[in-house]
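Format notes (please read before filing issues)

Several people have asked whether sequences and structure tokens are stored in separate files. They are not. Every record keeps both together, in the order shown below: the sequence lines, then the token lines. Line labels are part of the format and must not be stripped during preprocessing.
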Amino acid sequence: MASGGVSYRNGSALKSSMKSSSPSLNSTPKTSLKSRASAAANPSYGGLRRSSSGSLGGGGRDDTGVPGRVRVAVRLRPRNAEESVADADFADCVELQPELKRLKLRRNNWDSETYEFDEVLTEFASQKRVYEVVAKPVVESVLEGYNGTVMAYGQTGTGKTFTLGRLGEEDTAARGIMVRSMEDILADVSPETDSVSVSYLQLYMETVQDLLVPENDNISILEDPKTGDVSVPGATLVDIRDQQSFVELLRVGEAHRFAANTKLNTESSRSHAILMVHVKRSIKGKHDRELPLPNENGNASLLVKSFKPPIVRKSKLVVVDLAGSERIDKSGSEGHTLEEAKSINLSLSALGKCINALAENSAHVPVRDSKLTRLLRDSFGGTARTSLVITIGPSPRHRGETASTIMFGQRAMKVENMVKIKEEFDYKSLCRRLDIQLDKLIAENERQQKSFDDEVERLRADAEIRIAEAESNYAKALENERLKYQKDYMESIKKLEEQWLMNQQVRGGDKKVGTRDEFLDKTCSQEGSRPSSSEEIAEVKQLLQNEIDLRQSAEEEVVNLKSQVVQWKKLEAAGNTEIFNLRKLLEDEAGQKVKLEEEISILRSQLLQLSFEADETRRGLDGVGPGKAFTGLDSLMSQVRHLQLKDSENGQKASVAKLFEQVGLHKILSLLESEDADVRIHAVKVVANLAAEEANQEKIVEAGGLSSLLMLLRSSEDETIRRVAAGAIANLAMNESNQELIMAQGGISLLSITAADAEDPQTLRMVAGAIANLCGNDKLQTKLRGEGGIKALLGMVRSGHPDVLAQVARGIANFAKCESRASSQGTKTGRSFLIEDGALPWIVQNANNEASPIRRHIELALCHLAQHEVNVKDMICGGALWELVRISRDCSREDIRTLAQRTLTSSPTFQSEMRRLRIEC
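Then the structure lines:
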């Protein structure tokens, strides 16, 4: 949990949804992949950018991509109440030309700079309009399978969170990009086959924290060594089914995000918020071939089908709400809030360096300087379609911050991404489908085998029963026929014997008729010719033959059934062979996939090597070799002029650093003594730009740059040279070691003379800033006052310009603070030099100034002056007591209010006067 002035911020909810379409920042129609590949010739995309090992983006699995430049829109915030009062007499520093997509940034009343963007949004642009031109094309690309990024960048208080994270609970028209993007995504995906999941993170003090689960406050960032994809596997991933659940999720995340009250914004974000929306969509494959298997009739039957692997498209939408860039003296950050501001500015500076390197096709991109640049690795120079909205304010007091924001957007427009669709074969799904198909085939085969075995068993049992019945009937018929013939035979023998006896009796015994056996044979031969016996035998034979035929038919049927069993076993073996072939085919496909991935990796490395060699060759042919240098004053002056011309065109500081490396500091400083006035002006501007970087200040002083700048203040009559030189000295005076050198070389006297002669408010502001920085050094108090530093500050009050008065007030506050510290240590016992030089009336007069920078510094000065008892009587006579009482009661800054209360209660003289006047504190 943050300490100091940090608080948690709550969000708002939204229940309605809206879909709209219009011409947009990244507008590309929903087309097939082939038509997208052909879009490389479209002017809306940049040229194909070479890949390099140092690019901010990592490569994907796909072999082809669509080149696309980072698209940038600028949005102007309307004046707030404080600006309407403080800047009532000043025109806006920004002029918009939305029909021409241009923006003019005023330098002064007669000079301005013009910049072009992909879209210019006025202060009257609705949230819906902003979404359509900035984020809707990116959302459509994400739904088609591409990665996308939407990011907001700008000064604190210019409306970044309003543009991206507004929930629109009270007013649906105020919904931000996050809510509207999820509405379009949920409206397009299918709940049955697709999935949408969300992570919500914040980058606070270089630590990745989970906004959905605050206990998860130190998440690591992982990078895939093969594809270069960056992920945060430790983040909470929530599946989203409807819009209401997403709004509730955003509300929970916003409640845990760090925010603080600063002078620039009452609820300033102190962390970078990153919303990651993961979309997974399935594209069903078709049958690519069918494998025929012969059946029992010899015809082809389609039993097994081979499927193409299903295609899965995985895409990611990243919405980044960057914390606002700020200057400490303007935001008033102190304590823990100051440390937060430093961390924010460092991460934004790292992002700016990466974008500068990408815009200039540098061989090295410092991605690992910050966790923010690591998280945005794919958004700049990578494979994502990126849209950036920069937010600016109209106040002329913040022109420097506005110019810095505009230049950030201009550099980002030079970054080109290779947008790639991310498709992969769902081999797991294909394996599951083949396993299911295999299980079905095995089950069907087992069912048919069981049915076949049952049928064979039934036919066998039926044949055995029929055979048994036929054999039993045959045996019974034979037995009946045998008994019948035996009975007939016995009856015939009996009749013949009776007839023979009868014939013997009739003829008597005198006539010989033969023996009985002869008679029986004769009789049998006669009776054998009777047709009845032969027909019966033939009928029995016919029955026997019929039974034999039935038995042969049953045996043939058994043979046929056995042949069918053999045929089914062959079909089963063929099915098993086909299953084995399918499994082998699946293994071959997996092996081929591995080989293709290895080949892709090899080709990518070769492409990177070729790109690196091509870049080296191009630099060798185009640039001037490192061994060559400028050898004449004319060449050096031409470079300086070329530098200023380039600065006037694009405003980048990169050219200054490049000139510094190529020419050298000593040669640049030598131009400060040139007889050509234009050369001196260009040279002093270069030195001033270099002095703004802390890393260059020591080099400038060692090379004699401070002496040259003081010489210009002493000898030059050109207002521009004196203004820029004073600004450079003010930058150098921020370093404590340089302050003593400035004083030793008569810097205060020169600054005082310049303040007395100058009339331009900007020159006075630079001089006042330099003196104010020197006023904060405890060791230089007496010498600064002796050389007229305090009187010079008070003399510049004549300008009346708010910026000049703010610097004067800051110098007086710094001087009073040093005196207070010296009094507490016992090194100063007399009255304050400020009171002796007549600063008290002006301090009391401006203690309640409408401009907050002036008022805050004057309030601090009063509190520090009152801490020394020697000054109390003068302050009571000058009316400072009433202002101290007001500060102790009404000051918006708690630390100043507490300091005033402690000062009043600790002073006996103040207490006595308050009792006399009946003032309660």
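For reference, the curators noted about this record: The radius of gyration is 51 Å. The mean pLDDT is 78.
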